[in-house]
Write a structure and sequence with these properties.
The complex is a heterotrimer of chains A (255), B (259) and C (275). Chain B has one domain: Orthogonal Bundle (MetI-like fold), CATH 1.10.3720. In chain B, helix 2 crosses helix 10, helix 3 runs parallel beside helix 6 and helix 8 packs antiparallel against helix 10. Chain B is mostly helical and 259 residues long. Chain C has 8 helices and 10 strands. Chain C is globular. The two termini of chain C are 34 Å apart. The complex binds adenosine-5'-triphosphate and magnesium ion.
């Protein structure tokens, strides 16, 4: 794709977003909805910018980000580890496969009350929930990528003298990286969503808690601010992951 | 075949194994807030036997089914069109990108502000939650359809809409169904979560009321019920899926579920 | 038929055999749980420094035979030996070159070629110097830092060859290495391979579908029957070396070999009508 087409694509993509904001503005400025229900976009964004410089808001973002990263990192470590092990060893596979089959479609939020009871209302329960939710897509795509590695890559490495137990790290893991990163991207979006929800259901800080607090007092403007913030955070994190991806996958053919 | 039967039974064994770990764990911890698996399972019939709870749970499921169906009707055509036209794709992609990380259930308080706490608000949230993954998978499926297949279709005199229905739809079906499977579990999750947040009625509400009142057996029994719904719906959908697309290679045989 | 009295390696068995394939049979279990006989009772001895090609109809088990010598697949019956020792797994004394190149996509050209020497414990600087020389030898100087996806098919196959040569295998196992290339690139790579072989005198086991290629390159051509694969005939190619393509094409002896082998393969195809 050349640069010109790319620019026109981006322009095209901006249209619906601009349109949505225009409709939003229109509804509130023609008085179809009272400000208490739908504050105009200008008000919401200026509130967002103003909040960004307050330390209390920065604190909320920081605690959300901390839980998000902690949970996501645990999910990546466990997911990649278990996924590789399941692809490499038939014994591990026989155990992991049925367990994953049962746990993957289980709505993890339903476990949240149990996590609250067991781990308390602090960081731990939320981090565990994020990790539990982000784990499966990462595990599954690692497993998928690792079991799809071209047999002849493995043979080439073995013929060059790579011992069997090093094959996993020298060939299977790097060859599965594209698939692992796809899983991580899904896992990251999930982490954003889940951390926010967990904070809404029970928390004393974080973006999700901000929304609940605003909802209790019917502050519509303050309800929009955390939602837009999590959307922007997701966008930024996704962009960072995309950058990492294009660096790590510079050798791989495009998909 | 012995091995065949064993692999059939494996998920069941996994469930039993997990329950056994739970049992052992709770016996070891021995706190009031972590009842044993047996106690929790025993509490299940009393919840399902209770008229009011049962009606609430069935109501939740009805809303979920309607919203899920509506989301499919909206998301599949949109996803397919995005997959076949770069114009449509680049039009909608950024919008989807910014809505992806927003938890749909978190819109509940705002939507409640507008629409009240009726069925409509609850169904709208589920609709939004289901639509995104279904759009995404239909998009990927349609995009992967081989150009040559469409050319041969055009050569046989199929018009563009006909090609969409007769070629793109069936070719993308495996991927679409994967999206639907994710969407189904997601519908359940969004339903439970929005009920947890709105605290009006439904399964999520029963769960948190029990938590507030310290009825720990009920909490864990509800977790079992919701978990069983997730696993059951998924298994049922998987049967349907494997019938519909018997021709396609088995890909992921486990859905990706999240909130 | 032995044209080249290679270095006086300790003789094992008759005339210093490099590879001995001894009554090898291979049965695969297909998904329908049936036994499928892919190779039936193959015996073949390949002498040190010989260039041997295998020809035969598709599905007759050529690749399988090569994988058995490579140690990637173990035969259901019989035994394969290299330098008199039974083959139990892959090893750096036998280097494969696959039709699909099988380059590591996450490594550059240099990284791919260096992989073998590094794995053998050669110091990084030393391995790099060797690899650069090899890359130059296969005509890819200047492409050291390219990724495989940035190369053409012919260039990828050169890298694959260099990657295998880099760990100095005594035997090259080549499975239709030039099958995916255009005729022109193919000819050039054949010439390059012959030059390298004439310099190093490696033992080469070469699977191909092209009779021309087999006759042009080989000392011996093994013709196999339709599945289950057996050895139908072994033809000694007694053409002088070094071989020049332009001269050879006009040589009536060369033409005779080609016609004779093509006729053999035609017969084989008819055999296949009664499975
Ligand atoms: N892993 C396997 N499982 C089952 N059958 C196999 C397997 N590998 C090969 N076969 C069968 O063994 C036979 C020989 O296969 P092989 O790949 O060695 O043939 P080939 O001579 O190399 O064919 P081609 O010229 O097409 O490459 C085929 O009938 C094939 O179906
Ligand atoms: Mg072959």
């Amino acid at each position: 794709m050349n640069a010109r087409a790319l620019t026109s694509d981006i322009l095209l993509g901006v249209i619906p977003i601009a349109l949505a904001i225009a409709v939003w503005q229109g509804i509130s400025s023609f008085g179809y909805a009272p400000v208490t229900l739908l504050p105009p976009p200008g008000m919401v964004f200026s509130r967002l910018v103003q909040q960004l410089f307050t330390s209390s808001f920065q604190h909320e973002i920081a605690s959300t980000l901390f839980r998000l990263f902690a949970g996501f990192s645990i999910a990546v470590i466990l997911g990649v580890g278990i996924g590789l092990a399941a692809a490499a060893s038939p014994a591990v596979n026989a155990v992991v496969r049925p367990i994953v089959r049962v746990l993957a479609p289980l709505p993890k939020v339903a476990l949240y009350p149990a996590l609250l009871l067991l781990l308390g209302f602090g960081h731990e329960s939320k981090i565990t929930l994020v990790a539990a939710d982000a784990l499966f897509p990462i595990l599954l795509s690692t497993y998928y990528g690792a079991s799809m590695v071209e047999q002849k890559l493995i043979w080439s490495a073995m013929a060059a003298g790579t011992p069997r137990r090093q094959i996993l790290f020298k060939v299977v893991l790097p060859a599965a990286v594209p698939s692992i990163l796809t899983g991580c991207r899904i896992g990251l979006v999930i982490s954003c969503i889940v951390v926010f929800l967990a904070e809404m259901i029970s928390s004393t800080d974080g973006l999700g808690h901000m929304l609940v607090k605003a909802a209790r007092t019917f502050q519509a403007v303050d309800m929009f601010v955390p939602l837009i913030t999590i959307s922007l955070l997701g966008l930024i994190l996704n962009g960072l992951l995309q950058g990492l991806r294009s660096y790590l996958l510079r050798g791989f053919p495009e998909v | 075949m012995m091995a065949r039967a064993l692999s059939r039974l494996a998920p069941l064994l996994a469930v039993l194994g997990l329950l056994a770990i739970w049992q052992a764990g709770s016996l070891m911890l021995n706190t009031e807030s972590f009842p044993t698996a047996i106690q929790a399972v025993r509490a299940v019939p009393s919840i399902l036997g209770d008229q009011e709870s049962l009606i609430h749970i069935l109501d939740s499921l009805r809303r979920m089914a309607i919203a899920f169906a509506a989301a499919l009707l909206f998301a599949i055509p949109l996803g397919l069109m995005m997959g076949r036209s770069r114009l449509v794709a680049s039009f909608f992609n950024p919008l989807l990108m910014i809505t992806y990380p927003v938890p749909k259930a978190a819109l509940m308080p705002i939507i409640m502000l507008w629409l009240g706490v009726g069925d409509l608000a609850k169904m709208l949230v589920i609709f939004l939650g289901v639509s995104l993954p279904v759009i995404y998978h239909s998009f990927q499926g349609a995009r992967a359809v081989e150009e040559k297949m469409l050319w041969s279709g055009a050569a046989m005199g199929l018009s563009a809409p006909q090609r969409m229905v007769r070629i793109v739809l069936p070719a993308a079906l495996p991927e679409i169904l994967t999206g639907c499977r994710t969407g189904l579990v997601l519908a359940l999750i969004t339903m439970v979560t929005s009920e947890m947040i709105a605290r009006q009625s439904g399964a999520g509400n029963i769960l948190f009321n029990a938590l507030d009142m310290g009825q720990y057996d009920t909490v864990y029994a509800m977790i079992i019920i919701i978990g069983a719904m997730g696993i059951g719906l998924d298994a049922a959908f998987e049967r349907l899926r494997s019938r519909l697309v018997r021709w396609s290679e088995p890909g992921f045989d486990i859905p990706l579920s999240f909130a | 038929m032995k044209v080249l009295p290679s270095d006086p390696a300790p003789a094992r068995g008759p005339a210093s055999a490099m590879i001995e394939i001894d009554h090898v049979s291979q049965t695969f279990r297909t998904s329908g749980r049936q036994a499928h006989l892919a190779l039936s009772d193959i015996s073949l001895t390949i002498e040190d420094g010989a260039f041997v090609s295998i020809l035969g109809p598709s599905g007759c088990g050529k690749s399988t035979l090569l994988y058995i010598v490579g140690g990637f697949v173990s035969p259901t019956e019989g035994e394969a030996r290299v330098k008199g020792r039974a083959i139990t797994g892959p090893g750096p004394d036998r280097g494969p070159v696959f039709q699909e190149f099988a380059l590591f996509p996450w490594k550059t050209v240099l990284g791919n070629v260096m992989y073998g020497p590094r794995q053998q414990g050669v110091k990084s600087a030393e391995a790099e110097a060797q690899s650069r020389r090899l890359i130059e030898m296969v005509g890819l100087k200047g492409f050291e830092n390219f990724y495989p996806k940035e190369l053409s098919g012919g260039m990828k196959q050169r890298v694959a060859l260099a990657r295998t040569l880099a760990y100095h295998p005594a035997v090259l196992l080549m499975d239709e290495p030039f099958g995916a290339l255009d005729a022109h690139t193919r000819t050039r790579l054949q010439n390059d391979l012959l030059n390298i072989w004439e310099r190093d005198r490696k033992t080469v086991l070469f699977v191909t579908h092209s009779v021309d290629e087999a006759v042009f390159l080989s000392d011996k051509v093994v013709v196999m029957t339709r599945a289950p694969g057996r050895i139908k005939q072994i033809v000694d190619i007694e053409l002088p070396r070094p071989r020049r393509r332009a001269e050879l094409l006009l040589d009536p002896r060369y033409q005779k070999y080609v016609v004779e082998i093509e006729r053999m393969i035609d017969d084989t195809s008819e055999d296949g009508l009664q499975p």
